[in-house]
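Feature request, filed as a ticket because there's no other form

It would be nice if the structure record came with a short human-readable summary line next to the tokens. Right now we just get the raw output. Example of a typical job, pasted below so the devs can see what we mean:
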Amino acid sequence: MTQDNLLSIRNLKVNFRLESGERFEALKGISFDIPKHRTVALVGESGSGKSVTSMAIMQLLPSNNTEVDPASEILFNGKNLLTLTGSELRAMRGKDVAMIFQEPMSSLNPVFTVGDQIAETLMLHAGLGRSAAKKRVVELLTEVGLPDPAKKAGAYPHQLSGGQQQRVMIAMAIACEPKLLIADEPTTALDVTIQKQILELIAKLQKKHGMSVLFITHDLGVVGEFADDVVVMRHGVIRETGTVKQIFDAPKDAYTKALLNCRPHLDRRPMRLAVIDDFLREGGYVEPAERQRGYLPDDEIILDVQGLGKSFESREGLFGKHVFHAVKDVSFKLARGKTLGIVGESGSGKTTVGLTLVRLHEATAGKALFHGKDILSMSPREFQDYKRRIQIIFQNPYASLNPRFTVGQILTEPMMLHDIGTNQHERLQMARELLERVGLPENAMFKYPHEFSGGQRQRIAIARCLTMKPELLICDESVSALDVSVQAQVLNLLQDLQDEYQLSYLFISHDLAVVKHISDQVMVMNKGEVVEQADADDIYLRPKQDYTRRLLSSIPQGWVNEAIVAA
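Raw output as currently delivered:
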């Protein structure tokens, strides 16, 4: 370990003992350095070993089924963290090395205020008294840009937005001014504007406090303007290391090239997105021709939404009530076989639009004419047939698939409810064909959702929608939580299905590059209202509204075409 390195990992091997008695090699002898005062990005897909590496540094791997090779070393300022005692580890965590996790709600205690949780860290590691700790909490919340920090210190985690919760986690992590900050996917589920704020905040704090940062992500684009050095991992092996400039300008490994190219780009729209296998197979990747997007004058309009509104009422005091207008006077048209992308920050109303159209929320104003019939004014019995023709794919397949049902049951139950297929044998055969259509093997029929990866579960959710033979699919953030390579596979699948069945999509997302890739038209929403609506290329090349320009300027510059943003 040189004097310039704060942490050095040498030949780190980690195995997990499985219930079957077999051993899974999570890390296969990796070595890399984290220099002082620099940000190192650890990049790779799910299962690459990124989070196992971070948990090994923090010594948080489960002891009952984990084996770390005795020859492995994690040297922090010359000390091997793998040999520290329990008390030495407790003293190190939070004080010298701190960590920000991907999901703040699973890391923050729901029964304590955020101020008390940060104060506990200060009293434990910095030796501050309660009054001094409370004062320092307000200073920390101010430093991470939380509005009204004194009031927010008394709030519980559920009372804060996702971006605010992540700022609290950052405040807690920097409370004792650690030398190394580990950020494990801290922006994956955040809007582009909030993501940009969090990345800028971490960069500012890194410079101010002279920390080193290990930034873990599956998206190379996010680190393009944020990190100094990049370590690319796959299947527990380091494939490539280098500075950001080296990795982006001249990647050497085929896997690195694949990660850079799987992400949709704003300056081009290929017929199909690249996937990992395209780069790893012999002959390499040849980019296909570009796909033309946009509405045509003779397109058949199947959905005409006019003045859609949705309000929610809540009690205020003993006798008062508060009315929140989530969606205000939204109008748009959707053509057969085309995609309308709906973008906006959290709270913009885009998801409420989708849920209102499938009657999971009851509209408070407006019409939605589906083939000329207003589906919002229908009785539940009249709407029953339209439930089959309009389906929704939710963001989280973990929550939308019944964990007690096999995949076969998940696919055949909707058919039974809507009298599709003459008997169970026919339904099972249709389910098998649909699984094949979404790229899953026939034996998936007999497995349960927990036996599949996130991308595979989303394919099952898509197959379930297809059992209804719908005309309209509402995709509500349906690829936002997926790895870039899996995301590319699902987007290609959605495009293939649209080409084959002439499906129409309402594609709701905060990811502007994905929306640009798949949409014919884009509708921008802010605070429940439509800010701007036009063909996808026009929105991105010639945005008319300041809000749209602000969204576009928040896209990570690692993979965006700067000329487009400047325009």
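Something like this underneath would help us a lot:
The radius of gyration is 25 Å.
Residues 34-59+85-252 form a domain with the Rossmann fold fold (CATH 3.40.50.300).
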